[in-house]
Here is the input.
Amino acid sequence: MTVIAVVGTGRVGLGFAEAAVAAGHRVVLANSRGPETLAEAVDSLGGSAEADTVEGAAARADLVLLAVPLHSYGSLPASALEGRIVMDAGNYYTDWSGHIQLPIAGDDEAAKKAVAELIESIGFDAVDAGALREGWRFQRGTPAYVVPLGTAELVDALQRARRYRDMAIDDLTTERTHRLPGSGAQRPD
Here is the structure.
């Protein structure tokens, strides 16, 4: 049985914890307010859940899910997460229904396999986006960001993604081209 630390107990964290428990995994919940504030959440999840500090949960887990707001990342204990398999739920929205694909990226093949197995055990399909350096392909502003796509469509969206810096350069180049005399381009009005 996989033990998963769920750091963050809002909508995403608790939703993930419910799915993980339903799939037969053990869950250790943690938040910034301490384990004593999680009694109701633990009770609602049943006997396969418990609460601990972030450090304690991470130390006991096979996988760690971070489901905290972006502004909270700086307060997470980095040393407790070092060497752990960490999943970042920062781009996920739970408003969709149905079976959806979730892209993953990482440099450790065994870690990606463990994350993919977990994602698939709770009813999603993992799509390998490649090395961690390719994670930008499914961040905000890209075709693969927060859209319910089939596997083939998601792979296509990942390939069509452009980096933010490339978007800015392309936009600047287009703007300058429109201003060049003799370019044949119409100036935007």
Q: What stands out?
A: Residues 92-97, 176-180, 185-189 have pLDDT under 50 and may be disordered. The radius of gyration is 20 Å.
